[in-house]
Every structure is written in structure tokens, then in C-alpha cells.
Prior knowledge:
Order of helices and strands of chain A: HHHEHHHHHHHEHHHHHH
CATH superfamily of the largest domain in chain A: Cytochrome Bc1 Complex, Chain C
Mean pLDDT of chain B: 89
Largest sheet of chain A: 2 strands, antiparallel
Shape of chain A: globular
CATH topology of the largest domain in chain A: Cytochrome Bc1 Complex, Chain C
Oligomer: heterodimer
Mean pLDDT of chain A: 94
Number of domains of chain A: 2
Strand content of chain A: under 5%
Number of strands of chain B: 9
Number of helices of chain A: 16
CATH superfamily of the largest domain in chain B: Rieske [2Fe-2S] iron-sulphur domain
Order of helices and strands of chain B: HHEEEHHEEEEEE
Strand content of chain B: 15-25%
Distance between the termini of chain B: 71 Å
Helix content of chain A: 55-70%
Distance between the termini of chain A: 30 Å
Low-confidence stretches of chain B: none
Helix content of chain B: 10-25%
Amino acid sequence: MIEQMMKTKLFAWIDRRTGAEAIIKSQLTEYPAPKNLNYMWNFGSLALLMLVLQIVTGIFLVMYYKPSAEATFGGFTVAFDSVERIMRDINFGWLIRYMHAVGASMFFFVVYLHMGRGMYYGSFKEPRELLWIIGVVILLIMQGAAFFGYLLPWGQMSFWGATVITNLFGAIPVLGDFITQLLVGGFAIGDPTLNRFFSLHYLFPLLLVAIVGGHVHALHVVHSNNPEGIDLHKPEEMIPFHPYYTIKDAFGVAFFLTIYAYIVFFNPQFAGYFIEVDNYVPANNLSTPAHIAPVWYLTPWYTILRSFESKLIGVLAMGGSLAILFVLPFLCKSAVRSARFRPVYKIMVIMFFVDVIILGYCGHSAPTPVLKIVGQISTAYYFLFFVALPFLPKFEKTKPVPEGI
Amino acid sequence: MTDQANQSRRNFLYVAAGGLGAVAAGGLVVPFIGSMLPAADTLAASKTEFDVATVEAGQLVTIQWQGKPVFVVNRTAELLKQVDGHDEMLKDKDSRAIEAVSAEWMKTPEQRKYRAIKPEYLVVVASCTHLGCIPLFKPSPTRQEWGDSVPENWPGGWHCPCHGSLYDISARVINGSPAPHNLHLMPYKYKTDTTVVIG
């Protein structure tokens, strides 16, 4: 189809003025991709899909959402009421809002699997270090966008989640109070906070678009890694991205959207994991809910925060647990990329994935002494994993790597 | 033309023009960052008046001051006794760690212990000094009423639901809590016998 389109006069006219043909060929129809990519390589395109869906649904929600903490006659606030109006009165408002709220969780789900793929198969290693680092920047901006967005419905979880997180910045020495004030714009979370979070919630996805562009560009310079984690040189090891991987990605999209649609239509709150029940209670600055926890995709880092008795150390550990991802490519010194040929790393990285899930579970649950210790052990392993990586090649016997695929 | 140009003069002009441009761009940051700081009407000193006589014996009332929650507790003689006997459990029993936990009128050891102008009426900022949640009032000692959300030798006080910080009945933080400080005090005074002016 693309070939026929590229033969038309119109395309020739456009091509002379944009160089479109060369771009399509180098990036799509003649872009070489390893022929052995497995389904773990589908999550990049799914993440892109979720970014687009979040932006589109978000733009439509903004047509009705009102960022104001002013009280209404009903006894709630303008923001809370406008969200309820979207749910009850706006045509298809319920659908668009559920797509957006479920979409946030699905976006993180896809991105975490995408990152896990990168860690397991060593996709972050030379020459793809910068590709990984750009990816970590994307994760941080996503977490920021999710945090800002969560305040907007102005429910109890919105309010107290934002209180806790903005107070976190207060622990930073010297600049802490100033940064908290910049974020909050008053003495406590209130109308100014809601307005600036709304502004930033609109800005961050646009930043994401630009940085995702950089991520894809960096990928197309160094090309995809593959499950064997070896450098491919022979032409017979490669297949063009289009049509082979466009069709495989399309299949992945169809499969993914089936699950997504099921959740949106039948289980949008997902037992309180995607939309927390307490957030249907309007924000009340005089009463904290009995148990507050962030949405699931932030709970692993929340557990790391809770694991330390000193507020400052907790905040530093949480920041450090994200910052350490930036240096992962430089900590992991083994010449072999894929965990398939690294028996010790394979166990370590699978344990790391389990560890993050345990951290997430601890962060979502009410704090008890047992969970606190479990959380502390998991936090220790989280950091131990990264600290042990540089020493791994000294004793790990890697298996022989295949010549080709 | 280029041959005759005075290169060092030209370089100077580049640096001077570029430098001034950078200063101007930097200066422009001030209004933008400034716009994000609390606005004048938000800052306008707001005072809250409250009649403590409306608080029943043993009752806790949460009121609002500058958008922040404030606890007012009417401490009975029984509750006041619970202030004693657990000094070794406290991080900062005399409230000296930072300015915000202390007050001008705190002069005697008694006042440092009760943390109130009139011991029976405790008035403190209700935000946990860890991450700002409002702690739950659990005044009776031991686990009898509260289960294992509090330690076995619980002296009575507050328990923060978010991260488990504990405070005694004078809102002094108990060892092992993630909160670094006692609950903050705010300036207040008695206008009449029972009316306090906060702020």
C-alpha cells in the first residue's frame, strides 16, 4: 500500500519539498529490525498508543473540567462537581473519563513491562545507554504528570496524596520550604495548588511527546536490541520494520485494547487499584482518610520512603531509587547483554522484579510492623541489586553467546 | 573588511551582548517564579478567633487557621496526668529542637511539658511533621481501645494513619516515629478568659 502511495504525483510533489520518501524508507519500509524479536518488544508501541490515548481523552475532558476549589451550593467544590457532571451529564463523559483514568494505570503497566524487558535482555547496555537514560526521563515525567493529574478530581485521596508528596519536598535541606511553597502556592493545598497542577498536568504530556520523539530517534540510530542480546551484522538476520513489525505491533494493539476495553467498560475502578474509593469523597482539609496510599504504580517508591525512620533519609532513598536507574548502564559492566546467557544476573533480575512487586504491595497496604520489615528487606534488595552489578562479572560464568540468529 | 576588523573588540562586544542577554533572561525568571509563590491575598495575615469554652472536657476539635488544620483539646485532669512518666520515649521532651515547636511564653519546665498557655487547653497545628497528614486522636493509654495500631506502652495521644507517627498527649513525638518533630505550635493568645486569637 505504501509503495503504491509513494508512486502518486501528489506524493512526488510532497517528496520534493519534504524528503518524505527517504524518511519513510529509512525509518519504516527499509528500517532493519532483528527477525527474532519476541512479544516483549510490543510494549514500546503500546506505550506510544497509551500516550496518544491519554492526550486525546485529556483534551476532551478539559472541555468540561473546571479547576477550582471554590465551594458550591451542594457543599462540594467546583472541581469535584465538574468531574461528577462529566460522569453523569456529559454525553459519553463517563467513557472518556474512565478511558483516561484506566489509561493512566495501563500506561504505567505497559511502561513497566517495557522497562523490565530492557533490564532482562540488557537493552540498556552499550550502545543504547542514552536510549535508556531518555527512557528514565520519560518515566519521571510520567510520574509527575500522574501526580499532578491525581489532584484534579479534588477528592480525599487527591488532597491528602498531594499533601504528603508536597511535604516530601520540604525535607530537602535549605531549599525544601521554598520548593514546597512553589508547588503549593499557599499555606496548605488549596485553590492555587489545584490551578497550577492543572497547568502542569497539561504541560507534562506535551513534554513527553517531545522526549518520546527523542527516544524513538535514539532507537533508530542504534537500532533494536534482540532477545539474544548480540550485535547483528548479516542482512539475513534482519527484516524490514514495515510490514513485518507494523503488523505484529498491530496485533499487539488489538490484544491490548481488548483488555483495556474490558476494564474500561466492566471494571474501571479495578477494586480500588485504578481509582481509589476514597477519591469519591470530596476533599476535606480537616480530616485525613484512615488509610492513604498512592495509586499502585507509585507504591513501590512509597514503600522505600516509608522504610526509613528519618524523613530526610526516606526522601533521599526514594529519590535515589529512581535516580539510580540513570546510572544502570554504567553499573552493569558485563560484556554479555541478555540474561539468557547470564545465569546469576538472570536470578538477580527476576528477584528484582518480584522485589518491586512486593514493594508495591507493601506500599498499598496499611502499615503494620510485619509489612514494615518486609518493606525494609525489599528496599535493601532494591539497592543491593544495583550495588552488586559492577562486581557481578568477577564471578559470574556467562554461557557462550550465539554467533548469529 | 574582515581583515581590518578589530577581533578583540568584536569578541568583547559578543561577550558583552551575550552576557547582557543572559542577565535579562535570568531576570525574567524572577517574575515567573515569583508568580508561583503565595499571592498577597493568600498571605494577608489571617487571624482566627475561637472560644475554647465550646470544647467539652476530653473533646478534640479541629479548626482552620490559614487553611491549615489546628487541634484544640480540652485536657481533663486525667489526660494531663498522662503527660508524665514517659520522658525516655520522647524525641524532644522540652520542645527545643526547632523554633516552630517552641513559643515565647514557654518559660517554666511545666509549660514546656504541657505546651499550652493554659494546660487544660492544648492548641497545636494538626499537621503531622512527617508529611502533613492529620493524626488521629487516641487519648486513652494502652492498647485496650486502639489495638496494635499503637505500641503496648502507649501513653495516649495521637497516631498518624499515614506512616504511623505517634505523639503523646502534649503532641510531643515519640521515638521510632518517622516524624522528626513535635507538632508545631502557632502564635496565639487569650483575648478573654476563654477566647483565643490564633495568628
